[in-house]
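User: Can you predict the 3D structure for this chain?
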Amino acid sequence: MPRRISIVAVLVVAMLRTREALAQTTTSDDHAPNGTLIGMTIGVPGYGRQTEPDLLVVGLNVLHAQPSRLGIDFALGTIPKLLSADALVLGGRLDAVLPIAVTRDLWLMPAAGGSMIGAAAGGGGTAIGGVNAGLGAIAWSGHFGLRTSMTWHHFTDARGAIWLAEVGFVGGR
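Assistant: Here is the predicted structure, written as structure tokens:
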């Protein structure tokens, strides 16, 4: 039970910090971000053609990017359902991203980089690393955007790629 409260507390603090960061990253130009964009996503993982909706992923994303410039995209996520099984699973990715402004309100974002998944339970823990590649998009409306992405992750000694389809919001433009 304390672990669940801790995760909820971290998410609440992250949301409050997001609001503070938005106030600091907004520029007078409504169509140009000023560096760092922060958001939250939910995602569904899968393998091959099989989806795993029971393993819904909740994540925090930090994107440092501007259109037509190489940037950095960091994501950290967890699977809340596993908290009830007294297990903690955290996944993260750190990518190079190149946002392409299709219009002033739509960015396409090819990305590639490194991935990590770690798990801990009463009997111990483990972690594994790998690589990823994906494509995302942000559809802007004022200072906020709807973010979607599809990322394929290949981990060491895995037979194939695990994919993650995500949707969420981002702010800071």
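The first strand starts at residue 36 and ends at 47. Residues 36 and 79 are 25 Å apart (CA to CA).
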